[in-house]
Amino acid sequence: MKRLSFFLLLLAGHRLTVGSLPAAEPLQICGDQPALPAPEWIRHEAIYEVNVRQYSAAGTFAAVEADLPRLRALGVGVLWFMPIHPIGEKNRKGPLGSPYAVRDYYGVNPEFGTAADFRRLVDAAHVQGFRIILDWVGNHTAWDNPLVEQHPDYYVRNAEGHFVPPIGFDWTDVIQLDFSNHAVCDYEAAAMTHWIRQFGVDGFRCDFASGVPTVFWNEVSARLRAVRPDVFLLAEAEVPQHELHAFHASYSFTMMHVFNDVAAGKSPVSRIDDELSRDGVLFPAGAACIRYTTNHDENSWQGTVFERLGGGVEPFAVLTFMLDGIPLIYDGQEAGLDRRLAFFEHDPIAWRPNPLAAFYRTLCELKRTQPALRTGSGMRRVPTTVNDSVYAVMRESAGRRVVAFCNLTAKEAVVEAAEPALRGHWRDVFTGELVNWNAPVSFTLPAWKYRVLVMAD
After folding, report:
1. Domain, as residue range, for 344
2. 3-class SS at 198?
3. pTM assigned to the model
4. Are 327 and 358 contained in the same domain?
5. Domain boundary among 335, 369, 403
6. Are 200 and 291 part of one and the same domain?
7. Running along the chain, 457 residues long, what does each successive block of 10 average in pLDDT?
8. E-assigned strands of 399-447?
């Protein structure tokens, strides 16, 4: 019955052509339905994206393994590895190609090391308390993936019978898989299960998840959770129905763009509330999303955080931890990465001491130790007299509170707030200052500055 329902939903029995590719799924309003609950282990953690190619001069698994103690000290708990598989050579882009052009779903890119090297890295990471998630490219493969010869029926063809890249992109180094063929679902579920069983990975970040039908992901997710109930699945998409039965978290593309626009003065601070309200209507109750200011795509193609956020790099980063969700750090952010990394060649990060390392350590410690910052805990904006420049947000759980005031403009602001929940003893997590507030509260917040406070014992 699963196969029959799958085919009925996906034009059963017909090979897709360019002219019959299904349109993008419309976003469903899911706010009145419960989300697929995320594993408990992700709710107090920050995700750290590892670009193995650019992580070190060596560009290897071994180099990342050697740096695990530093990452543990930074306080991140989940390491997301960009695709680790062999990269296609046919129609390759640049000298090394894109890691998202997968030539072998079961293999390991020899530039990074061997399968044994990766297994050692995963084992060492687990010993140090990390969880590992792999980037999974489910929508397309490299032109020279063996599946092209072994199972040509896995792919979309045009009217002339030729394989085609995904429509609407310049992804000429890959070809589109055909999701009307249920064997594609069987193959991918088996391959993903392989990495869980043989290497002990804890989850997957699924690339371009919006290009793949939700019913496909629903079935893959069910199979993976049958193998490992606490597996974590993250969709690189902003599709509400994904979080009903398939994924535990989604991207927050729109919020990241809102951050950019607010920092540039193109949008008012209130756009943040607008986006939160939109998500509350569209996404299932209890849905999670990742919060971020950059990642590999943004850094390489749209600019560094310094280019896009200017003086707002730190206050917007504070919001990625304070807004309900799962914070994401791209490798190099803690070193003040201030250049765009090349995507198709080896371009190592220049690791150097930077105050942002201590900044992110503080935020990660806060996320890990404060019940109020657990993903899914209560969140609300605190009204102030300067709502047009300062975003103040309070999180609360079990009577414990964390509050942040972020000046998202280049002008000094005098903050006044009469919120009763501000009364009491607080500690500034960045300065250690102890304050005793009685509402109304009043203080000055310089341009692009922030205060984050926890209830003092």
Report:
1. 2-369
2. helix
3. 0.95
4. yes
5. 369
6. yes
7. 34 38 81 98 98 98 98 98 98 98 98 98 98 98 98 97 96 98 98 98 98 98 98 98 98 98 98 98 98 98 98 98 98 98 98 97 98 97 98 96 98 97 97 94 98 94
8. 400-407, 413-417, 424-428, 434-437, 441-445
